[in-house]
Every structure is written in C-alpha cells, then in structure tokens.
Amino acid sequence: METVMKIPKRLKSHWFSLAMAALFLIAWIRPSLPGFLNSGGWMKKACIMIIFFISGLSLRSEEILKGFSNWKIHLYIQGFCYLFIPLFFWSVLKGVGGFLPEGLVIGFYLLAVLPITITSCVVFTQLAGGNFAAALFNAVLGNTMGIILTPALFLLMMGTTDMSIEMDTVGTIMKLGLMVVAPLVVGQIVRLFFRDRTRQFRKTGSLVNRWAILLIVYFAFGQIFTGESVELSFSGMILPLVLIVPAHFVILLLAGAGGRLFGFSGPDRIAIAFCAPQKTLAMGIPLIAAVLASRPDLEGLASLPIIVYHPTQLLVAGFLEERFHARMGSDGNGANLSNF
Questions:
Q1: Phi, psi of 335, deg, nearest 5
Q2: Contact at 8 Å (CB) between 198 and 191?
Q3: CATH of the domain at 194
Q4: pLDDT class of 228 with cuts at 50, 70, 90
C-alpha cells in the first residue's frame, strides 16, 4: 500500500520529463499544432528571451565574471564539440558510411560539426544546479565560432571545397545579441535596482523557465513530423534513430569520463554534461538547405540526423537534470556525481 501511495509523489517529482514525453506524443498526433502556435517563430524567440531575462534576474554578476575566467572548462567543452565529436562521427562513418544513403552521410557530417545548443544547455545546467555562467559563456562562444568553424569543418570532413555555403554572419551575430545577451543584460539591470524583490521571484522564475523550455521542446518535436523544409514520415526516421540514440549516449558518457579525468568539480561536470554533447537545431536546418541548394533531392535524408538528435538530447537532458538536481541538493559541492 505504501508503495502505491509513493507512485503519485514519484510522478510529481518527474513531471518535467513526463511532460516532455507527453508533448512528443501530442506533436505526433497533431503535427500541425506546434507550427500553428509558433507561426513565424515568434513564440519560440519570446521563450528564449524570457529564459535569459529570468536568468539575468537570478544570476549574480560575480558568477558571470567567474565563469568567463574558467578557461579550462571552456577549452574542454569547445574542444569536445568541434574536435572530438567530429572525429567520433568520422571514424564511425568510415566503417559504415558505405552502407548508408548519400544524403544521410552528409547529414551525419553536418550534425557532427554543429555548435552546442544556445538555450537548452544553459537552462538545464541552471535547473540542475550546475555552473550556469560557464554554460552561458560556452553557448554564446560556441555559436559565434560556429559561424566560421561549422562550414569549414564540414568541408574538411567531406574532403571537398566545391560546395558553396552562404551564411548571414552579421544577421546571426545580431540574432544572438538580441535573443540572448540583451535580455540577460536587462535582467541584470533590473536585479541591480530591485535586488530584494528578485530574490523572492527566484522560485517562480525557475517554474517559468521550465514551462518556457517545454514550449521550445514542443516546437522542436513538431519539426520531426512536419518540417518546414522537408516532409518526414515516421518509418523514414527508424534508421537514423537506431544509429543516433546509442551514439548520443556514448558521447555523453565520454564527456563525463573526460570531466572526471581532468578533475572538474561537480557543477562544472553538470555544465559539461549539458553542453559538450548537445548540438543546435537552429543552425543545422538552415545550413543543410544552403549546402544542398543544388541537390534538393538529398535534403530530406540530410535533415534526419539533426532532427532526431535534437529531441533525443532534450529528453535525455530532462532525465539527467532531475538526477543531478537531486544529488546536488543533498551535496552542494557535487560529491554525489561520482557515477557520471
């Protein structure tokens, strides 16, 4: 009887992960609804800005400065993202790439060289009690460097330079500044003048953050079934799903093993778990369209890896966040993260 009574409590403690699973099913049943709610992409942009505004309200300025100076973790995360993951996919595709369609191979190479996510890695790190400042710094740094590194590494991996990649560098930088930096700065200014009130808002702000990221996750799930640039069927996703899900777990475990090997603290290793293995969908889809402008017949297959990888990493991150949060709550210095 006691076990039965504990079930509702367990469900309540895992509501965030369960909500993500429910949103996946809803997007599958009603694939047009996410696109309708996020018509023009304004709601997703608003969610991102709200998340970073609330982060600015709750983050101490000295923590940001501390995060900027922690060069060791920055080097590790960016090196893992732009060196280790591309080498990992390159070595795997050397063995099995000949058995895969051409478009799918291109998609895997593009996935490998994408920057880390700009939003979810930061929010999950904060919710789990990790090094938020380090996650924020690496999200901005990685996406800024990705404007140059991503197409350059892709061409290097493909072994050719005859593809024309056109990217709006200035527009991308402006978008990062508008959606990430500006809301964070405004939040910091508000916190400076209303410090006592912002402390009272912390619990509510955390809840708002969770709902905002659930909306972003829902919009990402919607792209699986009704992508704007590619029509997908559930059966067409089976092959990349079989390959990508275990690959993500392997990458995640290797990121954690490296964090232990280099002696990072518990909060730093949480940031590594949510930053190093993640890849952004926001740059992935436009880049695929640019690379395959002359081969639209390959665009569908090439889009599958990032479209499958993105929600996979979000679902895994949701479960990890709850696990890390519980462990950090019992030991603030992260000593209970020994299994990661």
A1: -65, -25
A2: yes
A3: 1.20.1530.20
A4: very low
Residue 31 covered by a domain = no
Q: How many CB atoms lie within 10 A of CB 296?
A: 11
CA distances from 41 to 38, 68, 177, 282 (A): 5, 31, 17, 11
More confident position, 230 or 207: 207
How many DSSP H helices and E strands does the chain contain? 18, 0
Domain tally, the chain: 1
In angstroms, the Cα distances linking 30 to 54, 221, 307 are 31, 11, 18
R_g of the chain computed on alpha carbons: 20
Range of the domain at 323: 37-333
Q: Report the predicted TM-score, pTM, of the whole model to 2 decimal places.
A: 0.69
Distance, CA of 83 to CA of 88 (rounded, Å):
9
Spatial distance between the Cα atoms of 289 and 239, rounded to a whole number of angstroms: 21
Does a structural domain hold residue 327?
A: yes
Report whether 288 contacts 303 (CB < 8 A).
Answer: yes
Q: Answer yes or no: is 11 within a domain.
A: no
